[in-house]
Amino acid sequence: MKGHVPTPDGLAEEMVGRLFDDAPPQEGDRILYPGCGTGPFAAAVERFCEAENHPFPSGVGVDTDPQHLDVARNRELEHARFERCDYLADDMIDIGTVDYIVGNPPYVPIEGLDEEEKRRYKAGFSTAVGRFDLYLLFFERSVELLEQGGVLSFVTPEKFEYVDTAAPLRQLLSAADVHVETIDHLDEDVFDDLVTFPCVTTVRRRQRDETRILLRDGSTHTTLLPQDGESWAATVRTSDAGGMETGATLGDATVRISAGMATGADALFVMNRDDVPPQLAPDWIRPTVSGRQLTANDGPQTDSVLVCPYRTDGSLPDESELGAFGQWAELHRDRLEDRSCVDNGKPWYSWHETPPMDDLLQSKIVFKDIAKRPRFWAENDGTVVPRHSVYYLVPKSGVPFDELLDYLNGPDARRWMNAHCQKAANGFIRLQSRVLRDLPIPRELCGTYQETL
């Protein structure tokens, strides 16, 4: 099956132990191994039952990969048969309900699916929305097949806790008769070189209750997960990130929160100020900063510039009006034409993205797109054009600039960001604009609120 990632034996044994923790198998129980691969979970079940002197449940493993199934069958396990079929096909419903489901569903983003697969999944699954991943659909099918009182344990990426695409799954997992018992966040390297931020989610088909959360730092807490499909990040990551609601958000106080500009050819458009050809300065260049420079220089002032064909209103001159810029660009025309933005109809001398100059050329606050400890800097002159590894926000008129900057660099905002932002490798977080717009801020920092007063 697409997206198969082998499960380490130790992890399979740990998950099986958790599956049977409060409900060891009885005679006549049924267990299902979706996307079973080479059968590591089925083998772990037999080892568990033999060690604890429990009867084997009646097991079925399903997969679409014949080679994996051959390996699973060669294990000669007593309790399980292995069948070649698609777990997400309609006829899987005919298997009936089961008492246990355990596995490592495939991780396949929508880019890995063909058009027929996308059409079929969107027609058959409520969780197949937006840029869905197959493991979301495996959750939905498994909850559907789970007997009342039955238990499900999956190891998946933790992203379903907070990405927008997984909102339907979060709603499904917080239904009145679905109880998420535990979410255990595993070490990042549990799958060797793959950085997946994995977690083991254990679900029981019974009345909803509080969920036990185990975090990577070893701390634990219990929480009642939201039911409306909104992000679980704050309630999962910390028990003290609530209580910040103020009635105003960063989105209320800003004109724009956006990533910086992507040219599609930074090696050409970005250069040191001392290396700029004389005919381009000063009319065709603008100061710029990257994420790395922002940290190294402790601010947005650098010696780097962007060769910029755009006017201050964001318009792009006709080719006949390019003058010295056109002469310089013509020397690099082959490289500039070899960009996806040109294939999509943009002029060969344009940037990959059209710059919103009205916002870029204002006093703004800049910050890195990925950070271990979020940090915000003032760009007061309104001259620096951030590149794509730098985000920027433009406060509305009437919003006190320095006070907003101080708040963003303060402990309350940092705690909220650590609780709500998407995780990246090695303890870093992603400061995405769609998340930051929801950051609560003191109402006195919001220009709209001040005007109302």
Outline the fold blueprint:
Blueprint lengths: L8 H11 L10 E5 L5 H13 L5 E6 L2 H9 L5 E5 L13 E6 L11 H10 L9 H12 E12 L9 H7 L5 E7 L12 E7 L6 E4 L5 E4 L9 H5 L16 E6 L6 H4 E3 L12 E5 L1 H6 L7 E4 L15 H8 L2 H5 L2 H4 L13 H4 L3 E5 L1 E2 L4 E4 L5 E2 L3 E6 L5 H8 L2 H10 L1 E2 L5 E2 L2 H4 L10 H6 L1
Parallel strand pairs: 1-2, 1-4, 2-3, 4-5, 6-8, 12-17
Antiparallel strand pairs: 5-7, 6-7, 8-9, 10-18, 11-13, 12-13, 14-16, 14-18, 15-20, 19-20
N-C termini distance: 60 Å
Average pLDDT value?
Answer: 90
Q: What CATH first level of the largest domain would be assigned?
A: Alpha Beta
Q: CATH superfamily of the largest domain, please?
A: Vaccinia Virus protein VP39
Q: Quick one: overall form? A: elongated
What is the CA-based Rg, rounded?
Answer: 27 Å
Low-confidence stretches: 448-453
The main sheet orders its strands as 3-2-1-4-5-7-6-8-9
What CATH calls the topology of the largest domain is: Rossmann fold
Q: Please report which band the strand proportion falls in: under 5%, 5-15%, 15-25%, 25-35%, 35-45% or over 45%.
A: 15-25%
The CATH architecture term of the largest domain is 3-Layer(aba) Sandwich
Protein name: site-specific DNA-methyltransferase (adenine-specific)
InterPro entries: DNA_methylase_N6_adenine_CS (IPR002052), MethylTrfase_TaqI-like_dom (IPR011639), N4_N6_ade-DNA_methylase (IPR050953), SAM-dependent_MTases_sf (IPR029063)
EC number: 2.1.1.72
Catalytic activity: a 2'-deoxyadenosine in DNA + S-adenosyl-L-methionine = an N(6)-methyl-2'-deoxyadenosine in DNA + S-adenosyl-L-homocysteine + H(+)
